[in-house]
Amino acid sequence: MLRVEMDRTDIPNAGPGETAATIKALATPALLLDKDRLDGNLARLSSRMARQGVVLRPHMKTAKSIDVARRVYPSGVGPITVSTLAEADYFAQHGFRDITYAVGLAPHTAERAMRLRKAGIDIKVLLDSPEQAIILGAAARAAGVAPSAFIEIDCDGHRGGLTAGDPKLIAVAAALAEAGVKLAGILTHAGESYGLSTPAGLVAAAENERALAVAAATTLRAAGHECPVVSVGSTPTAHFAEDLTGVTEMRAGVYMFFDLVMHGVGVCTTDDIAISLLATVIGTKPEKGWILVDAGWMALSRDRGTAAQRVDQGYGLVCDVAGKIYPDLIVSQASQEHGILSIRPGSAQALLDLPIGAKVRILPNHACATASQHELYNVVSAGSDAIEARWPRIRGW
Amino acid sequence: MLRVEMDRTDIPNAGPGETAATIKALATPALLLDKDRLDGNLARLSSRMARQGVVLRPHMKTAKSIDVARRVYPSGVGPITVSTLAEADYFAQHGFRDITYAVGLAPHTAERAMRLRKAGIDIKVLLDSPEQAIILGAAARAAGVAPSAFIEIDCDGHRGGLTAGDPKLIAVAAALAEAGVKLAGILTHAGESYGLSTPAGLVAAAENERALAVAAATTLRAAGHECPVVSVGSTPTAHFAEDLTGVTEMRAGVYMFFDLVMHGVGVCTTDDIAISLLATVIGTKPEKGWILVDAGWMALSRDRGTAAQRVDQGYGLVCDVAGKIYPDLIVSQASQEHGILSIRPGSAQALLDLPIGAKVRILPNHACATASQHELYNVVSAGSDAIEARWPRIRGW
Fold first, then answer.
1. Cβ separation of A397 and B29 shorter than 8 Å?
2. What is the CATH number of the domain that holds A299?
3. pLDDT tens across B329-380, in order?
4. Is B338 an 8 Å CB contact of chain A?
5. In this predicted complex, what is the ipTM?
6. What whole-number distance in Å separates Cα of residue B343 and Cα of residue B327?
7. Which residues form the D-serine dehydratase-like domain (chains A, B) (predicted)?
């Protein structure tokens, strides 16, 4: 018995701005963004931060899209956080003015950031050493601008920053003052919260992040340095912080889309995950329990962030074309342009009989990584097959 | 003591076609391609295949660049292999005519490939089921063209294809004939060879790939089907095949650049690896044995292909700016825009004293994955600091 699903209206992916008929007519692999879920996720954290009296400074490293940023700020200028100066340039070109570049400063990024400052952008940079203060001071003098910098605090050993009690904290603040740089405040990121999975653990991580940030700010103030901003944030701690006393702003990025890693941490349900990858069945191997699709790591990314979690989702969790999860069907293997779907080990589910040409949607492990493999978002709404818009994203540095 | 390396000539990355002064002046992260190593790798496999009397059909999925393809074919039309129809379109626009699209066919790719055929491109497609033969026949009739297809053979259980002894082999050939599709031949890929690490194992994998491909072709011919091409290939088996009797063409892609996974397999030395990622030191944590650089998984990819090998290279092996390896210094952790360099566990090496602003080069685990994170190659030569050219690459589907 031959079964073939053919979409006679299949078209190659259109460019930004163009619209394609329907999800079913979309060439694959293609990235889908559910606008309703996006808006729900944005509203959830915005209202939470409004209740706690803390400014939300969304991190644009996940979405990298002016259209997504405009869902947060329909006509605003920020505040936003960025992970590259390419993002800073892009959002500045679209009218954003209040931008924090939250990666440690190097000579070339100092010079480039100061050119943005010269162009009227209120860009704030990040550092944790007297060396970087000197670099920044030199770049600012060369550009003829007065810069503003955060000192990075390491609250959980994740990567950069000074521990809250490090005597170098005062030395960095002094070096900034000497270099003519305004201290914007302190900034920390509870990156280790991604490894947690219980509400109690997440509440404790958020309190640790808050307490150490506030302690560092207190130390600086006691030494006579103004420290106006106390900036904390990670998607897990942003959603579990019970007390933000002393904190002035919150940063988070992946909360806009969520993903399977955040689901494993316990921050969202699978129904909150706003992006998915549309793929097509290109082969079946029932004798091995495999369905082959045209979505490999090039479309999904190599991220295996759920491998260390209680439930390993492989390279993603498979849904039907409307977004309903097929129980225990995951992308178990990925090569460059091939994905292998199979039933999760230990499950009693039977493999589906999906014919060649059938389309599926795959929820990704890590939204930042999967989205970065694509040029644009195909924007959809729950319960509709229509592609409503195509939102471009940027890449590079 | 403050040590700062400042490059006053640092510039943002220029676009394709533009040239930047020197490696030291390049903004980071940036992808470097050593032209001499590339040419050496190309010559090595070309001359090997010439000696064995087998056509080399390079796979462009790794390089995705017309400039790299022109090192193989200064003014040719192919033959080449591609992993996406975006690659097929791109190389066709640049004059290539003989193209094999080596991913299993779906309805939308059948239609698009037949449009390329209508435009005069000798594109051959891949399938392993009667369903796909029907899909292809319908697309060909709609476009008014006579298509040509390979039947995929599974020689090692890696992903798609029919086993050489599968009775469906004859059924697929019959379905192709009935659909009016010419049988191009059979095609197989010894993908499991990436998991090997001994010359004897690689020689055996190559012989297995050859023997099963030839067996499938023999079965088809005995049933009265012409089977002109017997196409095999993977970078490891291409370099270790001792006998290619019955094989007419070889496909390989990553051999152009090589990488740490191929080094671990035993196909190349680290001196053959032609691409590297230029990064800048943005922080140090000597108390933890860490150096922080501005190259995270966005620049390196999330590929951890060496994790399963004898020597785990983390996210990459670190070299000085001239390309000389720092013994046992690896990228041990990566977040989106941060990499953490540290000495490999168990090594007695001491951590280097690299100051903020110092540049390093990182050899990648997987060339296909790392290159795909970048817009272009900054082309360099051994022993020179000059950026000689910028070669764009394509992406998408």
1. yes
2. 2.40.37.20
3. 999 999 999 999 999 999 999 999 999 999 999 999 999 999 999 999 999 9
4. yes
5. 0.94
6. 8
7. 274-381
